[in-house]
Write a structure and sequence with these properties.
Blueprint lengths: L4 H6 L2 H7 L8 H8 L7 H14 L2 H9 L12 H18 L17 H12 L3 H23 L5 H13 L20 H17 L3 E4 L5 E5 L8 E7 L13 H16 L6 E7 L12 H6 L18 H7 L17 E9 L4 H5 L3 E7 L1 E10 L3 E2 L11 H19 L3 E3 L3 E2 L7 E2 L2 E10 L2 H22 L2 E10 L2 E2 L2 H13 L6 E4 L5 H4 L5 E6 L16 H21 L3
Parallel strand pairs: 3-4, 3-5, 5-16, 6-15
Antiparallel strand pairs: 1-2, 2-4, 6-14, 6-16, 7-12, 7-13, 8-11, 9-12, 10-12
This protein binds (2S)-amino(hydroxy)ethanoic acid and manganese (II) ion (2 copies).
Length: 572
Amino acid sequence: MVSTLEQLNAAGDDAAAAMLDNLYAQSPWVARQTLQARPFRSLAQLQHQLRHVVDRADPDTRLALIRAQPELADVTDFTPDALTRLQQLRAHYSDRFGFPFVLAGRDPRGVPLTPQQIIDELVRRLDNPADVEHQEALRSIHRIAEIRLGGDFGIDLSTGNDIWDWHEALSQHSDPGYAEKGQLTVTYLTDAHRACAQRISQWMRECGFDEVGIDAVGNVVGRYRADRADAPTLMTGSHYDTVRNAGKYDGRLGIFVPMACVRELHRQGQRLPYHLEVIGFAEEEGQRYRATFLGSGALIGDFKSEWLDQKDAQGITLRDAMQHAGLRIDDIPALRRDASRYLGFIEVHIEQGPVLFEMGLPLGVVTSINGSVRYMVQIFGMACHAGTTPMDRRRDAATATAELALYVERRAAQDGDSVGTIGMLEVPNGSINVVPGECRFSLDLRAPSDPQRDALVNDVLAELAAICQRRGLRYTLEETMRAAAAPSDPAWQLRWERAVDALGVPLYRMPSGAGHDAMKLHEVMPQAMLFVRGQNAGISHNPRESTTSDDIQLAAFAMQRLLDDLANDTPH
Ligand code: HGY
Ligand code: MN
Ligand code: MN
């Protein structure tokens, strides 16, 4: 029999505790203490309070909670060999950590894990340091409780599951050289990229958008018309290109969540007092060409024509790639939006960091997006014999780069909230027995404010010059991207805050260390973002990037709430 939140809030203490007694095995104290915070406005708020009660318990109580959990119950699908392997690993796990292996038997989509997935997860977690595994065990216990709560209270996850499934289906398209390895890489205008544009277009049509098209730079643009032609427009969306060996949710989540909202509006036959423009931006990551934010930039009139002569790793120019894809370069200037016709821009994105995951929160409201600058650097020294050249006679480009890398790490850490990364580094045509005469590398420098970012940049570039001076080397420097810090528009940030609060989800405001298309739209219209918790400690730009149907659904409900509230605030 399905329970309701109203029943839980109204029940006597014992009856209420009985409604929650299957969430945390052998540990009634969790529910009892949680219920003291009644009434709950949502299951999300109840879940957060359950986690909070466990987090504030003393270490011994938390350890007893883990030890009270039964071992994996359902092993019916295990072959005898797999079961033997499981038993051996579980024994090893208990010896190593002093508590049983606890795992939520379902994946982030709520689908039961296969025996192999269970064994793989157990093997992976055996490598965890004890303190990390202790936290991971607790998160597994909370995930089990979340799944059981959803069952007991009859949560319908169909919206979250559908959005989750769109990601899964789109991830089938990947560039050659990666697809064969089961890796996801979709770079600008490859066949996989263009297949993605077609899939997204098709799904938009199925969702009921009035107009769907692929624009002159490859953005997929869906419009859901307002209740009157001369209404203003709200823009939302994110990117569908990816980094190399990427996760499935970076960017795409911000396309699919609004698509699901339009699907619901269409199902209800509801029209808003504003047009809703949902955009799948074609190029944000700047992987194939150094043309970061190309998709969103084109909409604010910031398509740089010099990009057209850039060549990719195969020597194909951006111009050729666009013409091969049937894009009309002459039509690009017309993509520029008249910002006066827009209410603003909102974007949903996975957090791509550990904060929400560690706080046990499904959603966060973004306060500002860090400003960033990127460079490609070449250091030139002298290639020479590794065996005969004395150490004090070398002009080694690689050790100079290494010296700078350690400086970048130290200098960025000095600010506390700046970051500096050398993500690409190579000795072109290097040989094992040749002192590197050249070294190429990237620089990615970011900070919450432009002055802080620029101070970091100035110091790093000064150190680059000093290192090369001291070592007798020369270098070239090419700035490939500069994005100003983008504080959220207060009114739009408040809209997200109200929507999150209406779901009963505890409100958490946070900066974005990652760059997003919102920072381009920020240049011409007000913007604000919503973050969704990432699983696996929020890892991103990595195939372990993950998020649950539950959290995806909460993001969709938050956007629906924002759209409804905006409709009420917009003159009809
Ligand atoms: O690098 C970034 O911050 C984003 O993922 N493009
Ligand atoms: Mn990214
Ligand atoms: Mn992104």
